[in-house]
Every structure is written in C-alpha cells, then in structure tokens.
Amino acid sequence: MSAPRPTVLISPVNPSDYASVAEVYLRSFETTEILTDIYPPAIQPSMETRIALNVQERTKRYLEPLNDLVEVKATIDGKTVGAAIWLSPLDRTSTGGDSLPHEVEIEQMLAAKEKEAGREPWEFEMDKTIDKEFYAKFKKTMKEIRKNWSKGAPHWYLSYLFVDPEYQGCGVGGALMKFGTDQADEAGLPTWLESTIAGRPVYHKKGFEVHSWCEVEGEKFEGGRLRWPGMERKPQAVKQ
User: Fold this and answer.
1) Superfamily of structural domain 9-131+148-188
2) Fewest CB atoms within 10 A around its CB: which of 76, 200, 230, 233?
3) Torsion, Cα of 15, 108, 127, 21 (10° steps)
4) What is the pLDDT of residues 140-199, one digit of tens each?
C-alpha cells in the first residue's frame, strides 16, 4: 500500500521567502535544458553566491508595480518545495499584444532611474553568470510567439514553474499549476506556457496542446538550433 501524498499548501511569495525560493529554483534547473544554456555551468559561481545574486535580482524586480504578476510558493510541512510565476490577464488587444501605455511608462521610468543611479556591483556579477546573447534571443522569441498566439487577448500565462528535485512526484507541480488554471477556467480564459521538451508530456496531461514552436539558432545546439514548444490550454468547464 503506497503512502499518502503530503499536503501541499500554496501561498504568495513574500520578500522573506526570496532566499528559499531562489535555492529551490537554482537546484531544480541545474541540469535543465535551456536553463543550462542561459546559465552555462562552466561559468557559475558557488551556490551561495548564486542564491545571493538571485535574491538581489528579485528584490529589485519587485520594487516597482507589476500589476499582472502573481508569484506563489508551494510548501510541505513549512518547507518551500516549489514556486511559480503567473501573469494574470490584461487586455492588450488595442496594441496587438504589445505593452500598454501605462506599462511603457513604467518601463521608461525604470530605465531612467537605472541610468541615473547606475548599475550596482551585484548586477555586474550577475552578468558574468549569463550567456547574454542567447538570453536576449530566448526572451524575444518567447514574447513574439505568445503575442502571435494571443493577439493581445486576455489569458493566464505561466511564466515559470519549478519543483525541488527531492519533492517531484508529490503533487507539488500539479498544485502550482492548478492555482492558475482554476482561475483561468473560472474566467473562461485560455492559458499559455512554454515548455522544455522533457516537460511537454507532463503539461499535455494537464490539458495543454502544442500551438507553435520557439526556435533559436546557434552553433552550440544540436542540428544548429534549439526548439521548445509553446502550449495552450483552452478553458474547461468548472465543476460544480
């Protein structure tokens, strides 16, 4: 007789959670395709340094209003074992999926503040851990694929989801996924995500289908390119 699954609790991520979330994030993606291309293992500092840099990045990222970003953590017996960032729906049909006027204002304000204040030492250290050329192509490709799919129509977007390797198979990923898909179903809205090749069957079981493929060319990739699927989930009837 198999042991019962542990209880997984989902709650918002607070600043006091940044370090524990960062550690799980880094551990869960250490051997994951795409993430190892963004953060090449050969140039990574110690785990302690990477956690500290990640916390600094998170702190800066959340200083400014991001009205559509929802980050939640999964805990078992009080321990953080996973997290997810969801972007809640905004209607961008007026811009075809590009940033809305108030979002452009925020982006310009942040750029002006950074130019005035200059970059902090930790940001230069972070630069050393990233393949910046690949990362820029990666972000641009995902943004274009999602924009072409949605045309700016409201939807829930799973930006990322990760689970502590020691707790995979315990229902953690499913609980983090359900947080967003339940709200999408309640609103009658579709859901979008980008997956690794390995993660594709997992998301397929949750109702996602491949809509289109993201591609980045490069000599270091097998066959000269890296591909990963953009997947959509249509809204499902809410069980009464």
Assistant:
1) Gcn5-related N-acetyltransferase (GNAT) (3.40.630.30)
2) 200
3) 20
4) 999 999 999 999 999 999 999 999 999 998 999 999 999 999 999 999 999 999 998 888
